[in-house]
Amino acid sequence: MSNSPVIAQECPDCGAQLDLTEAEEVGDLVDCPNCGAAFELVALQPFTLAPFVDEEK
Question: Residues 29-55: pLDDT tens digits?
């Protein structure tokens, strides 16, 4: 388990808290535990999330 500090972000869809850590990297996927929406981390400074679109579907 990582000891990296948690950075609270807000889900762009429902506003629920998403707990990210400093260990996150650009390209990581983040799922909202409240609404189930998936986001891709597109920038670290500041943490920026974009809707994830699965291009394999």
Answer: 999 999 999 999 999 888 899 999 887
**In what order do the strands lie in the sheet containing 29-31?**
29-31, 38-44, 47-51
Both structure tokens of 51: 């809707």
CB 2 within 8 A of CB 21: yes
The CATH class, in words, for 6-51 is mainly beta
- How many whole angstroms separate alpha carbon 57 and alpha carbon 7? 31
End-to-end alpha carbon distance in the chain: 32
Q: Six-digit token pair at 27?
A: 């390209």
According to DSSP, the residues that pair with 44 across neighbouring strands are 47
